[in-house]
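lol forgot to send this yesterday, sorry. struct tokens for the thing we talked abt
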């Protein structure tokens, strides 16, 4: 399996909180999350967490021992939580956390795991792309932010309601009926979206962080078939270049969004059988 990757920090001079990496037959992509100014909760920061978690996951995947992907994620979450439980408040809702996307070619199949809102695009031999994501975080955010509809930005009322929405969102994290993300609780791995496909049915596989997926939504520059065409023609860097181009143009307009870290990994030359 050949893997090409590109990552870009959302803001110059700030750590890139995404992580992507690969070992023979497997790849991972993590999108870090946390709240700025919470150094008193965790002195290490989000980038440290995603890099440690991603590196440990790759170490386990490199053993080729056939362990279930959810079991690999659970043991890795526990390991990294233990690494800084003695110095940091890992149970605090604002401590570092990350989405997880993991794929592995094994025994003639592609196994995958998703936790929170990254995107897996399966380039099928027949039938066009199949896009897989964990929609629970987006659903929870939409429900929690509903009270802000129609409230003018920049007003005290907006700020007050927004704070309440943030608290409501935190209360749904890693809870039944809410959404799940890698943080300090290894049981979150049991709630991941998982599946398996025959490698014979796939031409390639793409992994995109939320920041990179903006090329499809909300920017609407192309659809998922177009994403695969861009990857085949120009590679992952072109996806991110187009996202940044739009963000630079609308950065001061009403549609402006804060640029996010963006990462793409493209897996090609999938083996028909991997022991």
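and heres what i got for the seq, position by position
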């Amino acid at each position: 399996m050949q893997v090409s990757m590109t990552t870009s920090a959302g803001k110059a001079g700030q750590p890139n909180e995404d992580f992507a990496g690969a070992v023979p037959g497997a790849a991972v992509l993590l999108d870090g999350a946390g709240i700025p100014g919470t150094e008193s909760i965790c002195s290490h920061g989000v980038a440290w967490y995603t890099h440690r978690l991603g590196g440990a996951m790759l170490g386990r995947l490199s053993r080729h021992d056939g362990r279930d992907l959810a079991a690999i994620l659970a043991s890795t979450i526990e390991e990294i939580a233990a690494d800084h439980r003695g110095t940091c408040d890992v149970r605090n809702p604002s401590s570092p956390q990350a989405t997880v996307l993991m794929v592995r070619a094994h025994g003639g199949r592609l196994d995958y795991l998703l936790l929170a809102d990254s995107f897996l695009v399966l380039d099928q031999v027949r039938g066009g792309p199949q896009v897989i994501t964990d929609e629970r975080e987006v659903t929870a955010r939409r429900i929690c932010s509903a009270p802000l509809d129609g409230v003018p930005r920049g007003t005290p009322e907006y700020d007050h309601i927004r704070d309440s929405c943030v608290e409501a969102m935190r209360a749904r994290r890693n809870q039944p009926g809410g959404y799940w993300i890698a943080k300090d609780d290894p049981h979150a791995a049991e709630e991941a979206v998982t599946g398996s496909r025959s490698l014979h049915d796939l031409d390639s596989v793409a992994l995109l962080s939320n920041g990179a997926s903006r090329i499809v939504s909300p920017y609407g520059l192309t659809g998922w078939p177009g994403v695969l065409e861009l990857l085949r023609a120009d590679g992952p860097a072109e996806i991110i270049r187009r996202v940044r181009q739009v963000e630079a143009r609308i950065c001061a307009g009403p549609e402006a969004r804060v640029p996010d870290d963006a990462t793409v990994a493209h897996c090609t030359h999938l083996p028909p059988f991997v022991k």
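The longest strand covers residues 97-106. anyway ping me if u want another try
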